[in-house]
Amino acid sequence: MAEEDQQFEEVLRAYQDKVFRLCCAMLGDRSLAEETAQEIFVRIWKGLPRYRGDASLSTWIYAIARNACLTARKKRAASREQQLDIADIRTPPASPDRTPDIMRLVRHLPDGQREAVLLFHMEEKSYDEVALMLGVPVGTVKTWLHRARRSMAESLMKENDS
Amino acid sequence: MDEERALRQIDETLDAALGGITAPPGFAARVRRRVREPRLSRAPEILDAIGWLAVLALVFVVALLWLPPGTNTAAAVAVAGIAVAPAAVFGIRTLREL
Known about the structure:
Largest sheet of chain A: none
Order of helices and strands of chain B: HHHH
Distance between the termini of chain A: 64 Å
Structural class of chain B: mainly alpha
Oligomer: heterodimer
Strand content of chain A: under 5%
Largest sheet of chain B: none
Shape of chain A: elongated
Number of helices of chain B: 4
């Protein structure tokens, strides 16, 4: 096996779960996450011969992954806008659910907070790992998590009281 | 419900829902298959671009021939350049994405 192929195999083995989890957190859709994760590894394979080690390998991989997720998110938003009229007419209004649905609360958080919360619980509660994956300082991750948990707890308490 | 209990419920629910997520079975095999696919040839796009540039050039040559004598041809050429530049940018972007 060529050296490049061997290096790619090592990257694929070491990062496939982490990249897939990052895609899940940023896209919130398992099938789109898998498609995007595959695309990310194709880009990594193409870029690996040019990787010079200026940034650490994980930083380089997560930067590719974040860019690919943002592109996938934009494409999805554009296609949803085109389908919005039909979807609005055909989708019946949701029935009121009284049970506390934590995942629904997570979905309503701002992008950064939502991604931090999801990755924090996926990555065994490592602030450093989440910061590396999202490309932000550890302090920002802590702030996002603190705000997200407070906001979800408040919503949960309101739902229980009403 | 107090805040502490709400936070505990959030943590427990998210740990249970999100802990242990891994790439789907067969993911690595599908990636390997994709990276070993032969790369697409750029020849059709390049030939297409050459063809369209030739058509554009022809249109402008004909337009210049139709202009009345004494018309400022530099302005016409500038307009042609403005029309071709965005087409070239989109063409290059398409080629880069191949």
